[in-house]
Amino acid sequence: MPAPLLHIETTPTLPATADVVVIGGGIVGAFAAYYLARRGIRVALLEKGRIGAEQSSRNWGWCRQQNRDARELPMATASLALWERLAAEIGEDAGFRRCGLLYLSNNEVEIAGWARWRDFARGAGVTTYMLSADEANEHGKATGQRWKGGVFSPSDGTADPSRAAPVVALGILKAGGSVHQMCAARGIETEAGRVSAVVTEAGTIRTGTVVLSAGAWASSFCRQLGIRFPQASVRSSILSLAPGPSGLPDALHTAEVSVTRRGDGGHTLAISGRGSLDPTPQQLRFAREFVPMFARRWRSLAPGTLQAWRAGHETLARWRLDAPTPMERNRILDPSPNQRLIQETYRRACQLLPALQNVPVAASWAGYIDSTPDGVPAIGEVEGLPGFILAAGFSGHGFGIGPGAGHLIADLVTGAPPLVDPIPYRPERFEASAWGKVAEF
Ligand SMILES: Cc1cc2nc3c(=O)[nH]c(=O)nc-3n(C[C@H](O)[C@H](O)[C@H](O)COP(=O)(O)OP(=O)(O)OC[C@H]3O[C@@H](n4cnc5c(N)ncnc54)[C@H](O)[C@@H]3O)c2cc1C
In angstroms, what is the span from residue 353 Cα to ligand 1's centroid? Predict the structure, then answer.
């Protein structure tokens, strides 16, 4: 069974014109269109499949500041405040709760790293608590194990990946924007060197501004425009359990396995950082840019299969605007999970939390996590193509910071004071090497 997802009804006909067209209805595109619509901007959100059906419904749902890189921490903090307001603004619940995140460890080096992050975060006004062995054992009593220490971040939380992007899309509709599912954008038209229209499979929308929030498809789309965006994907496998025991930590990370309570009372299980590297033409093309990233993470990555090559999201091909494109041939990127990893994850979770033993598996799935060479997203107007804003490469963190990213995009489009400093996200930074700049987590 694939990842659960709330299906919503959207707008049947395309507008002829729009102030802004957002391409890609994951959490980032949905929030960008939402904050634009709330400012009275005529915005159309295009999604080739279903809203939220790719990465944005396949993740753990963590919305965290804990252990965030300095470049992303302000956006993570701002996002938590935006998540908190969302249900009241839209009148629908995206499942966000500031439940706090619990990290437990027996590794002194890891605990020391968390303490260093706590000291840094204090300077940024973020409070997180180091746990002594006794406190860790108290917080982690459901594990039945002894712990040397841990950390608890009370202001962090989780939202429900099966609902969040669709709920935000409902907010776009309420605010007067339009949302179009099963509608792939094939390309962009330009006039006098700037964006003038978006060509979709259902017709053309004239517009002066495009936001490309196409997740793992962003780089191949950029290539059609002569824009070089180094991007690579890692396949991450994950499973969920049926509703079961209560009284477990809402969100628990250990080096062995991480467990998150889902909105339906079940649990999501995954091994942090573990992934499969499926070769693709694009990955070979950008291999050099990603050496610093993979040099750091190689221990957690296993060689994958050819399924990403076949999926087409990382093709180097050029396509025409008057014929079906790879985005229409693959409406929802739905890779197969690594079954050995799924079984290992389940085994470790049952060992960590004995109350999970005998709770049936509800579903298992995989998702391609799209990453940049330094692990920080690209958000900003692309030099040389006025009106074209790139918002992709969220590197495994985009769900939690989706609200802040969407707000920042709306700020950049409307010229409003930016929610956070946009400089760390500028797409031009990829012209320089990522050595020494890879995000810690
Ligand atoms: C297993 C897993 C666990 C994760 N855990 C977390 C977590 O706990 N916390 C966290 O913050 N992040 C997590 N992430 C990362 C997070 O899910 C992503 O960073 C985030 O969802 C990216 O959102 P997005 O909108 O950029 O991309 P996506 O959700 O992938 O959306 C992009 C959308 O664009 C559409 N699209 C592409 N091209 C076109 C086109 N030409 N026309 C129309 N539509 C198009 C696609 O169909 C897709 O729906 C995890 C990811 C995975 C896979």
Answer: 29
Dihedral angle computed from the Cα positions of residues 276, 280, 283 and 287, in that order, rounded to the nearest 10 degrees: 90
Measure 27 CA to ligand 1 centroid, in angstroms.
7
Cβ 392 under 6 angstroms from ligand 1: yes
pLDDT score for 294? 86
What pLDDT is stored for residue 441 in this prediction?
59
Ligand 1 contacts CB of residue 406 (under 6 A): no
Q: Which helix (H) or strand (E) holds 130?
A: strand 129-131
Tell whether ligand 1 has an atom less than 6 A from the beta carbon of residue 275: no
Domain 20-98+157-231+305-333+370-431 carries which CATH code?
3.50.50.60
Provide the whole-model pTM.
0.98
pLDDT computed for residue 212 by the predictor: 98
Residue 291 identity (one-letter amino acid): V
Going by alpha carbons, the residue nearest to atom 20 of ligand 1 is 398
Residue that is written with structure tokens 């994958």 in the block? 304
Q: Which residue has the tokens 């960008």?
A: 32
Helix (H) or strand (E) holding 165: helix 164-174
d(CA 283, CA 302): 15
Q: 201 in ligand 1 pocket by Cβ < 6 Å?
A: no
Mark residue 403 as left, alpha or beta (left: phi above 0; alpha: psi -120 to 50; beta: remaining). alpha
State which of 55, 223, 278 you would mutate to test the pocket of ligand 1, scoring each by most atoms of that ligand within 8 A of its C-beta: 55
Q: Is the CB of 100 inside a 6 Å radius of any atom of ligand 1?
A: no
CB of 47 within 6 A of ligand 1: the answer is yes
- Indicate which residue's Cα is closest to atom 1 of ligand 1: 59
Please tell me the distance from the alpha carbon of residue 103 to that of residue 80, in angstroms, as a whole number. 19
User: Residue 123 has what pLDDT?
Assistant: 92
| Closest of 343, 331, 421 to residue 376, by C-alpha | 421
Regarding the beta carbon of 398 and ligand 1, being less than 6 Å apart is answered yes
**Overall size of the chain counted in residues:** 441
CB 94 within 8 A of CB 169: no
Q: Write out residues in the chain with pLDDT < 50, as ranges.
A: none
User: How many CA atoms does the CB half-sphere of 384 hold within 13 Å?
Assistant: 7
Angle between helices 402-414 and 73-90 (to 10 degrees): 90
List the chain domain ranges. 20-98+157-231+305-333+370-431
CB 261 within 8 A of CB 100: no
